[in-house]
Amino acid sequence: MKFIDEAKIFVKSGDGGDGCLSFRREKYIEFGGPDGGNGGKGGDILVEGIKSLNTLVDYRFKKHFKAQKGRSGSGRNRTGASGKDLVLKLPIGTEIIIDGNIIADITSQNKVVLFPGGKGGLGNINFKSSTNRAPRKTTPGEKGHETELLLKLKILADIGLVGFPNAGKSSLLRKVSAAKPKVADYPFTTLNPKLGVLRKNDDEVVIADIPGLIEDAHKGNGLGIQFLKHIERCHSIVHVIDITLDNLVEAYDTIVQELEKYDSKINKKNNVIVLNKIDLLSDNEIEKKKKQLEKNLKNEIYPISTITGKGIEDLSNKILSFGRKNEN
What is the DSSP letter of 228? Predict the structure, then answer.
């Protein structure tokens, strides 16, 4: 399934049915009078969050969505049938935007009425009075609401894994969860965000593997700004750095600056640094590089190997503690 995180669609709630102009015509009843019924209500446009969906691909090709119109009223004071509602099923984490303003944020599986259908018109029975025994007045059904919507998906995750391409984010996600993202030794193996769940006893956190960032990602370089928005909803950040790089501080600073330029709030989240691929270095080299970072940064540092599993247990406990803090 192709990952689509933005879509533009047109929606229209149902028009109300028209009121009916009718008079009672029955044998042996001299003065029948008006009996035109009201029109039915138009169908609503509703939205529903679906936990199993993680893409807006359903809205890539179908662009127009209209709820059913209410039926017109009829004689014998019969109200027209209401139009059928239309439910837009969206991934949890979808923002609904009109003219740059967020009108709804789908964060649960509840159904929400986005635009109600138009009210039904009044039949002529409503206009009968002592001075007007045979009214010929009716009202048309109210028009439904129509507009263009921008759907923007920002995945919901507790933890975001960020770092350069090939730092080992996907390998880490595979190691701590049941997710099976593609792993290879070339840049930008991960082309779309991937989710996994880390579980231990009664604790669990959702982890997002954000495609690799590079310098000037906020300007669109590499995979660019396309996926930076998915970090916004994460409560905590895990910086994954390849320990074999020559300058670890520079690598960390580059990612931090890209996050800062996109949204300064991101760097204020809980965060830790992971030094991956320690299986490629000796213990002395690992300790030397760790001290180099500790000298310049105040973050907690976790040396790990996704190949041997060394350090994974301590890191998993730290990530789970972030999830417990967010619950409190």
Answer: H
Residue 253 backbone phi and psi in degrees, to 5: -60, -35
Helix locations, the chain, DSSP H: 169-176, 225-228, 248-262, 283-296, 312-327
Six token digits for residue 202: 């009664």
Under the banding of pLDDT at 50, 70 and 90, the label for residue 3 is confident
Q: HSE-up of 285 (CA within 13 Å, CB side)?
A: 12
Q: State both tokens at 87.
A: 């439910």
pLDDT per residue as tens digits for the range 72-88 = 999 999 999 999 999 99
HSE, side-chain direction, 13 A CA sphere, residue 243? 27
C-alpha 317 chain-centroid distance:
28
CATH homologous superfamily of domain 159-327?
Answer: P-loop containing nucleotide triphosphate hydrolases (3.40.50.300)
Distance CA 7, CA 9 (A): 6
User: CA torsion, points 165, 167, 171, 172, in degrees to nearest 10?
Assistant: -120
pLDDT at residue 188 above 60? no
Residue with tokens 């406990």: 317
Whether 96 shows a pLDDT value over 50: the answer reads yes
Confidence band of 232 (pLDDT split at 50, 70, 90) = confident
Q: Where are the domains of the chain?
A: 6-153, 159-327
Residues 275, 243: contact at Cβ < 8 Å?
A: yes
Per CATH, the number for 6-153 is 2.70.210.12
| CATH topology agreement for domains 6-153 and 159-327 | no
More confident residue, 172 or 179: 172
Tell me the residue type at 211: P
φ and ψ of 144, to 5 deg: -75, 165
Predicted TM-score (pTM) of the model is 0.78
Over 70: is that where the pLDDT of 301 sits? yes
What is the chain's alpha carbon radius of gyration, rounded to the nearest angstrom? 29
